[in-house]
Amino acid sequence: MIFKKIKIVLILIIIVIFVTNNLFAQSGITLAEFTKRLQPYFNQEMIDDVVKHIDNPDKVTIWGWDVGDFSGDGNYDVAFVVKILGEKKSVVYLNLFVDMQGYLVKVGDFPVPYLDLPLEVGTNIKEGSCFVSQKIGNSNWKMYGYKIEDGALIFQEDFSSKKLDNFTVDEKNNYFGLQVTERVFENDKGFEKYNRKYFIVPSYNRGRLIFRGFTNSAVIKDIDFVNKGAFYWQGEKDSYFEISSAFDNEYLYFQITVYDDNVTQKHCDYCEGDYISLWFNTEMQGKELNRFTIKGKQLDIADKASNSIYNFQVFPGDFVDIPPFVNAFSNDLVTSLQQISASQIKTVSNKFDGGYTAKIRIPFELIGLDPFLFNSFYWKIAFTAEIHDIDNEYRPEEETVIATSQFVPTNPSTYGTLNMIPNSLWYGDCRNIYKQDISQTLLEYGF
């Protein structure tokens, strides 16, 4: 009997301890407790810098935090998630503070919604970036990455994982490096059924000023995008390229800078030489590009050859006597208007020590694009740019091809993306961390 009573008491104690710990784990910590945990990393003055930015400190709890360097100066920064007690909305607030000359300065404050518990939103600082994870559904998560660079808080990347009935779809977007990775896994066996890596080339209105913190030029020098001749490629010291784009009401513009230690020039019609190739699949365009679709247990990949493919081969000339020229091709019927607009293609090139630059102007009419489609929102077009590097004109079989996607011309799902950006939008996000100081200074001077 005594043994049974002791057993019951022990069970009750275990239950009480478990429930108490579970409730504590799901209730966050007070601001006072949080400041104690910061003491190993910051002095009291810096901790006070954080506290003074918290409204009603007695009415908040901290649900997640991390210390590390995401400003690139080698000093500790801090990120934490705040829940306001009594607030009916299912939202927490991400606070970002960086060390600036011995002061912890607030550089970000973002509302982040949650589904059931504030615990669903977490933060982690690693590899020079601050990451925020957020539950967006049952077994579905999203992660955001921020970094400080040149006085700007940059939205660097995001990652999402969505579990459907039979497949899991993972997608990673790097807004600073302009690279996208898409993967689809079968849930039952875990087999990878789809994998694509490609670059997004943002195209802004011609003459638009691109602020520091936004990227409009994609740099391609990764072995993953050497689609031919990887055996002969000696890395970026051999060849790589960068590409940017712009548009106006009539034309689409590209600037391609090729870094090449040995530029082989095409001297005759039958000679081999380096060139640039631009591919468009205008049958695949819209607010979003569906490279695959999932219907129940079926994964359909857009890998069937289509019409409306346009290819422009840009030869840079010899930079002295032979001017640059363009060869244009299409697998579609070309209208008389398109034939007329083809005469409006223009290209120029310039050689520099270590490579060459080529610019090309393509009429929208020629490739069947309507510029009014992207006046208000992103308009995406299946697009891939390639450089063909031939170091020895007598051995063209040793050609190296580097592209903005892992590319097969007849497979629409392997194209990259050209993203037409209206004047009201940007690709990515960026905030000047000195904005408040600048505004205050202007007010003091009477502006």
Keywords:
447 residues; 6 helices; 13% helix; 2 domains; Immunoglobulin-like; disordered N terminus; 27 strands
Summary, kept brief:
This protein has 447 residues and is mostly beta strands. The protein is 13% helix and 46% strand.
Number of strands: 27
Whole-angstrom Rg? 28 Å
CATH architecture field of the largest domain: Sandwich
Pairing-aware structural class of the strands and helices? mainly beta
- Count of the domains: 2
By CATH, the topology of the largest domain is Immunoglobulin-like
> How is the main sheet built?
20 strands, mixed
C-alpha termini separation: 84 Å
Q: Approximately what portion of the residues adopt beta-strand conformation?
A: over 45%
* Average pLDDT level: 88
The shape is globular
Specify the number of helices: 6
Uncertain residue ranges: 1-25
For the record, the CATH class of the largest domain is Mainly Beta
Q: Tell me roughly what share of residues is in helical segments.
A: 10-25%
